[in-house]
Amino acid sequence: MFRSKLQFFTNYSTPVFEYTVKADANENLLDYPEDLQILIADILNKSVKDLCFYPEINSQPLKQELAKFYNLKEENFIIGNGSDQIIQIIIQAACDKDDFIFTLYPSFAMYKITADLFDVNHSFIDITQNWEIDVEETVKKIGKNERIKVIFIDTPNNPTGIALDYEKLKMIVKSFPEKLVVIDNAYGEYCDIDYLSLVLQNENVIILKTFSKIGFAGIRCGYAIGNERIIENLHKVKPPYNVNILSQQIAISLLKNFDRLKDNIDTVKNERLRMANALKSFYFVLPSQANFISIVDDEVDYIFDYLKDKKILVKKFDTGFKKLLRITLGKPVDNDIILENLINYKRGKQI
Ligand SMILES: *Cc1c(COP(=O)(O)O)cnc(C)c1O
Q1: Across the chain, how many H-helices and E-strands are there?
Q2: Which CATH number characterizes residue 9's domain?
Q3: Which of 80, 1, 26 is nearest to 289 (CA)?
Q4: In the prediction, which pLDDT does 293 show?
Q5: Bridge partners of 217?
Q6: Is the distance from CB of 83 to CB of 242 less than 8 angstroms?
Q7: What is the domain extent for residue 266?
């Protein structure tokens, strides 16, 4: 009844157990300011009478708001049911069966999962032993394979949190004017580097953004910014009515009140520094520019189970030569609990 490859296919999943601290999915779990809560409740209330209608087919009003926000044109945007959906749209629009996508390794899991589903192959470059991207090697490797159609660069990277230097990314972009370079900037609000000018100055670049990592993972809304030709082609494969009315309205009001999210973003950035400093005498902490920190440790499996016993949910990764524990930064009180347990784990081992 189903495609035979589904037998071996596993989609994205996460372990489930009872927890008191959730630090596994890079959500922003800080409370929003009360006036923003009221505003959103108000929007939901007002939208009730509109639920009989289909939403705007291409999320037009949200695009208008984004155009204002970025000082660009509506034609520079496509809206997705999460940026996950835009990843799928990009692969569908750019890749024939047996073409390739290219990613960093490690990187966000959905690139490869989505490529697999559409019978698109996957080529990648390993991060170096020093946790750097060797751009010359990357360019060499991509250059050897004509069937690579899309290059996905998540920066800041998930799961390391490391941001790719602007000039290095520019070099990749300039080397392959005929390939689509996707800058996945899901953690952009937590990062000091602004890559937007790469989109505006090059014909082959789009940037992916999302509301998910700044407190609104539940509305499933992400978008891409690119030149009109790219955006027009992506719309050809976008399912109609892909973003519901409630999500569109909430996203519009978030853009209008974006300054109200700033405190939560700043808190996370401050917590990132505090946690990294407190952990660095016990663990090797990667230099994160995202809303999580990742530690490198051979004992990640034990640490994960140790935290699980304390009802703390984090995420672990086996990245080939090293193991990583990715810890989403949350409320300071929750971060304290994680910190204390991570330190206790190491202290316990010393006795
Ligand atoms: C979380 C994440 C996404 C997915 O974002 P959604 O908008 O929730 O689909 C995309 N890319 C990266 C790198 C992520 O970490």
Answers
A1: 12, 13
A2: 3.90.1150.10
A3: 26
A4: 98
A5: none
A6: no
A7: 4-32+261-350
User: Tokens for 177?
Assistant: 């004017």
Say if 180 falls within a structural domain.
yes
pLDDT single digits (tens) 197-230: 999 999 999 999 999 999 999 999 999 999 999 9
Q: Please say if the pLDDT value at position 84 is more than 80.
A: yes
Write down the pLDDT at residue 350: 64
Domain count, the chain: 2
pLDDT value for 201 = 92
> For a pocket test of ligand 1, which of 27, 110, 155, 294 has the largest count of ligand atoms closer than 8 A to its C-beta?
110
In the block, tokens 């009109």 appear at 228
Nearest-CA residue for ligand 1 atom 14 is 186
Position 40 in a domain: no
- Mean pLDDT value of segment 72-98: 98
pLDDT above 90 covers what percent of the chain? 92
37-53: b (≥16 Cβ within 10 Å) or e: eebbeeeeeeeeeeeee
Check whether 284 has a pLDDT greater than 80: yes
Q: Are both 223 and 305 inside the same structural domain?
A: no
Where helices occur in 50-205 by DSSP H, the ranges are 60-70, 83-94, 110-117, 135-143, 166-175, 196-201
pLDDT, averaged across the chain: 96
The structure tokens listed for 259 are 């300054």
Say what the pLDDT of residue 275 is.
98
Residue 351's pLDDT band (cuts 50, 70, 90)? low
250 and 328, same structural domain? no
For residues 155 and 186, membership in a common domain is answered with yes
Q: Do 19 and 311 form a contact (C-beta atoms < 8 A)? A: yes
- CA–CA gap between residue 216 and residue 51 (Å, rounded): 21
Query: How far is the C-alpha of 326 from the C-alpha of 24, rounded, in Å?
Result: 7
Choosing from 59, 155, 195, 210 the residue with most ligand 1 atoms within 8 A of its CB, the one to mutate for a pocket test is 210
